[in-house]
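User: Quick sanity check before I run a bigger batch. Here is a single chain. Can you write out its predicted 3D structure?
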Amino acid sequence: MAKRPDSKQATETLEEIESVFDRLAEWVSSNPRIVLGVLGGILGVAGIVGLGQSFSLRSEQKGSEELAAIYADYLSAMGATPGALEVEEPANREVGQRARTEYAAKLLAGADEHGGTLAAVGARIQAGVLQAESGELDAALATWREAADEAPAPSSIRSLALLRLGGGLEKSGDFPGAAAAYAQAADNPSFPARFLALASAARCWLEVGDREQAKALYLQLEATEPPAGSIPEHVKSRLEELKGEGGAS
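Assistant: Done. Predicted structure follows.
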């Protein structure tokens, strides 16, 4: 049985992964023309991806507007300002729990209505976040899997869904599953967090004692020449220990 992620390093890395989403949302807010006029953080994430391909611009914009309105209502219910990147827990925790449950369901219903759009994928990602925050991790994992399956490949929004899925699987104690999700998230040269995703995949293999798989991924990571600061130092130092070992090359 896979061990639970109870180490300080694993916790810190999961917090770093969480911060990726905040940084991407902040990037979107600074580049509004890419977002098709979407106001919420969730649909800002959807706007990162190049639009077009098999998606209709008209249906995309309609879905974005309707799903952004749902997310704006959620922020209001939580007492947060429109476009807020961080949502504080209300003084009455029951209010927060009800809001997360209610708006996760609304986002999923909206995603079903606008299926086949990037906005729908973004809605599923955010719905999964609300489910996880409500303690419904299994439901969140299923939602993130559906988001990844629905997203075009390769695309940054698919990698984003896979990064969320990897973090959720890691929290559940499924390190091999988390490693696979992280590795898939990293398999996209245009994804801003690809270096962190690949490092996280290597770290997860270390958690279950598979040093060969961990080393192979770390050598792959080094070959991409990740920029300074793209990998947490505590993760990098742990993976550096693999380089002196025999085996994968």
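The first helix runs from residue 8 to 30.

User: Great, the batch can go ahead then.
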